[in-house]
Design brief:
The complex is a heterodimer. By secondary structure, chain A is of the alpha/beta class. In chain A, helix 4 packs antiparallel against helix 7 (114-121) and helix 7 (114-121) packs across helix 8. Chain B folds into two domains: 15-135, Ubiquitin-like (UB roll); 172-309, ADC-like domains (N-terminal domain of TfIIb), CATH 2.20.25. Chain B is globular, with a radius of gyration of 22 Å. The chains are: A alpha/beta, B alpha+beta.
């Protein structure tokens, strides 16, 4: 929407803002050091709003918790927008100067009265009103989100609906006001920066529409570049299903366990003509591969790579350990692979590869290695070698005179409920996420001994556990329309009746992604990990029989 | 009305310079600086133990005291802000005696064997902790002491804070025989950084010790194993289990260790890690105190989640 995809604010601003909304994020556990910055603000007297179906350990720090029903984010955002408009709290100067499409947007949210918002989201009208007024009236306000916003079929629209709020109030492009997705992996931002997304060249230059950029890359690389958008991960799996994608080269990822609807993902990976996996550890996906290339750990066994964090800061990684056995650096393997395929790319160092990137990506141009070193990392954009990097983005929206660059468009976003419907047969909403001491499918994190680790559990509200007549620690069967798993019950009063929670850290113990739905957002390809309809059954004699039948149904 | 062009960040308020005299030398430091800052600017080596770069001064150890002309008592350099025309003496007879007393009492009651500055201070101030007599026999029940249960010492031995080393988890060890009650771990765990509040000071007077609630073992406490207490501990009372085991086996050797700065492999916050490596194995992880992202702090994954790259035992 604003071109380059990245958080607009710095951590420093988070600590100095007046109001924070943490939406669909349990940063206390998933981004603990970011949460330190946030708590600095809270101790200074900033207000914190937590928007999350769970009263998570982050939401417990909030002044006000908005416990919305899973997948009703757009409904809540649109209700907040309408309330801001009707209360006359919009920043009209900013809207006139820097945005487009306000009138249409205003008309589109007209149906979202506080009462309608309460009916759909489950959040009391008065609480929605409180957040709307506080956000609009704050001098500085920062909105942060994580996968609670993006792991839905409406992933992109969810984000756009939050951006609308910042455009209404002018809470973007200023010190202490911004919009920030908290990145889940140490280089997920850098992957985007480097063009490891289907529609962009490095530096967020569009492969289809930015002809000049494409020509620049073609000249530098001496080869034509396919001008069409590629496939994102979900489209690749669809391509496998259609038999169009027959070979996969997977590195640093474990899709055999991390993808929603594991059963389908594993079948499709197993049906490939050739699967090449490059990883530092023998993952489940690597076990399925025809060839495994052992790689070095880029964060401590390789000298000179970079990663980009959630405040757009590019930082250097360095070698501390000699790699084991025959493990080779990723960039060495890729160049060697190219050589065997008939392309001699030489043996570039990572710094040489980075310098090529700097010559092609304007936002990285000033980030010489010695400057990254000297400044403790640099935040993009950094267009020249005397530029200090950018504390926040989109200051141009506030510049006087004619607009600098395109105006920011409001987006019309339509609420649709999650795909996996709650019915009498599947009455409980299961949502998934991380815990503090573990990480994704546990490939790295399960190898250290955490005193807090308790393995996979099905977290239930005590009221649901009472209704189901199950005790903490009791193994129950959890079934969705795609499969069943067994897991012990744990009680969590931070949940609400009808809402259950599991992680996906222990796939060897409980393959939670057998349950999740691979319905994906057509715009981003993100699967709806956050909204699965399940049934929970007690495993006594009679229930076991029923569960057996259900298991067969789920198989078909 | 047109929107205005905004500066990238609000300008820092202009700071005044404050002039004072330390040990007969004039010095100017920005308003808000401490006497310790002024001493450091002049290259005057002022001893500190409870002071931490990333923490508010706790004023606990009193080893940094200096003499301020016109003041009745000695004042702690680490916390007292400079004022115009202060006249400070850092090496007067009174200051030296006070520092000697502090380091002697600490050394007689606490195991300072792996606190290198303490040995230095003992020498510098002619501290002779042995003059308080041999150490009293260790009390295995120090955690159970209650106010008023104190027995009068016999004067023949030096009371100590000794208690058995606590090894109740696989990540870090607490040896409170080495604890000088500087409060740094409590402050790092509490509202200054981690906001977990798993530990605090229990007991009164000489019975005071750092404790979890009801002295529970860590796995039954509120601890989240960020290790931010270890990062600020000045005496080795809090220590990585890996360091503790190597020290036990007498194979801990800092001269053979490298320190490498890199970025944490887990979430997207981008925390800077310093990997301490001995014999191609990560033996400890810290974070630079002067980096804006972490200020020396990490979470359990960044601090302890490195086993996947260490050789299998």
């Amino acid at each position: 929407m604003f071109g380059a995809g990245g958080g607009t604010s710095s951590y420093r601003e988070v600590a100095e803002t007046d109001l924070l909304i943490l939406w669909g994020s349990n940063a206390r556990e998933t981004h603990p050091i970011f949460f330190h910055h946030l708590l600095k603000a809270v101790h200074r007297g900033a207000r914190l709003y937590g928007v999350d179906p769970r009263r998570s350990s982050s939401a417990q720090w909030a002044d006000t918790w908005l416990g919305l029903d899973v997948g009703t984010d757009i409904a809540l955002a649109n209700t907040i927008a309408r309330e801001i408009i009707h209360a006359g709290l919009t920043n009209q100067t900013f809207i006139d100067h820097a945005t487009t499409g306000y009138a249409e947007f205003k008309a589109s949210v007209e149906v979202w009265t506080l009462e309608e918002g309460e009916r759909v989201t489950g959040v009391p009208a008065e609480t929605i009103r409180e957040l709307a007024h506080a956000y609009a009236r704050a001098d500085r306000a920062i909105l942060c989100w994580t996968l609670g916003i993006t792991e839905h079929v409406t992933a992109v629209d969810n984000v756009l609906s939050l951006i609308n709020l910042a455009l209404l109030t002018g809470h973007v492009g200023r010190y202490g006001s911004g919009l920030n997705p908290l990145r889940g992996q140490n280089n997920v931002q850098g992957g985007g920066d480097m063009g490891a997304i289907p529609n962009k060249l490095p530096g967020f230059q569009d492969v289809e529409n930015d002809h000049e950029a494409r020509a620049r890359f073609e000249r530098a690389w001496g080869t034509p570049i396919d001008p069409n958008y590629g496939w994102h991960l979900s489209q690749m799996f669809d391509g496998m299903e259609r038999g169009e994608l027959k070979v996969a080269y997977v590195f640093g990822e474990n899709p055999a366990q991390s993808e929603a609807d594991t059963k389908r993902a594993q079948e499709l990976l197993g049906g490939l003509d050739f699967l090449l996996v490059q990883d530092i550890l023998m993952t489940k996906t690597a076990e399925m591969a025809d060839v495994v290339l052992p790689a070095t750990a880029s964060w401590c066994e390789v000298d000179g790579g970079t990663v980009t964090n959630s405040e757009r800061r590019v930082q250097r990684m360095r070698k501390a350990l000699d790699p084991p056995g025959q493990a080779r650096d990723d960039h060495w393997i890729i160049c060697e692979l190219a050589r065997r395929l008939g392309h001699d790319w030489g043996n570039p160092t990572l710094e040489q590869a980075w310098d090529e990137l700097r010559s092609l990506s304007p936002m990285h141009r000033g980030m010489r290695y010695d400057r990254l070193e000297e400044l403790g990392g640099i935040q993009w954009p950094c267009p020249s070698e005397d530029h200090p990097g950018s504390l926040f983005l989109h200051g141009r929206l506030w510049e006087e005179g004619p607009a600098q660059g395109p105006k920011a468009p409001f987006s019309i976003t339509t609420w649709v409920p999650p795909v996996d419907e709650l019915t009498e047969e599947f009455p409980i909403r299961l949502t998934t996420g991380r815990r503090l001491d573990s990480y994704n499918t546990g490939v790295q994190s399960n190898l250290y001994s955490s005193p807090m680790r308790r393995g996979e559990t099905l977290d239930l509200h005590p009221q649901d556990a009472f209704k189901l007549d199950v005790e903490p620690g009791e193994i129950v069967r959890i079934s969705s329309r795609r499969g069943s798993v067994d897991a012990p019950v744990r009680l969590d009063t931070g949940l609400r009746p009808g809402l259950a929670f599991m992680t996906f850290h222990f796939p060897e113990q409980v393959a939670v992604n057998l349950l999740t739905i691979d319905a994906t957002d057509p715009k981003s390809g993100t699967a709806e990990f956050k909204a699965t309809a399940v049934r929970v059954e007690k495993l006594d004699g009679a229930a076991k029989e029923v569960a057996g039948v259900a298991g067969r149904e789920a198989d078909t | 009305m047109n929107p205005i062009v905004l500066p990238m960040a609000p300008p820092a308020p202009a700071t005044r310079l404050i002039s004072l005299t330390v040990d007969e030398q004039p010095v100017e430091v920005p308003e808000g600086s401490t006497i310790l800052d002024a001493c450091r600017k002049l290259g005057i080596d002022t001893p500190t133990l409870c002071y931490g770069e990333t923490l508010m001064p706790a004023n606990a150890c009193r080893i940094c005291v200096v003499e301020l002309e016109g003041a009745r008592t000695l004042i702690p350099a680490c916390s007292r802000k400079v004022e115009p025309d202060m006249v400070i003496r850092t090496d007067s007879e009174r200051v030296r005696l006070s520092r000697k007393m502090v380091i002697e009492f600490l050394a007689s009651s606490v195991d300072l064997s792996i606190t290198p500055p303490a040995q230095d201070y003992l020498e510098r101030y002619d501290g002779r902790p042995e003059r308080y007599g041999p150490s009293a026999p260790p009390d295995p029940d120090r955690d159970k002491r209650r106010a008023g249960h104190h027995e009068r010492p016999d004067g023949q031995t030096a009371a100590t804070v000794h208690q058995p080393t606590k090894i109740d988890n696989g990540l870090y060890v607490r040896d409170y025989s080495k604890c000088i009650l500087c409060y740094k771990c409590v402050d790092a765990c509490g509202e200054q950084w981690q906001n977990t509040f798993a530990i605090t000071v229990a007991g009164r007077g000489f019975d005071a010790r750092i404790s979890t609630e009801y002295a529970n073992p860590l796995p039954e406490s509120a601890c989240v194993y960020c290790g931010n207490c270890i990062a600020v501990c000045p005496t080795g009372a809090l220590m990585f289990k890996s360091e503790h085991d190597l020290r036990d086996a007498a194979t801990w050797d800092e001269s053979r260790q490298t320190r490498t700065e890199t970025i944490c492999p887990y979430c997207g916050v981008g925390c800077n890690l310093t990997l301490h490596v001995q014999d191609n194995e990560i033996v400890k992880v810290t974070s630079p105190a002067d980096h804006d992202i972490t200020r020396g702090n990490l979470c359990i994954k960044g601090r302890f989640g490195f086993q996947h790259v260490n050789p299998k035992a």
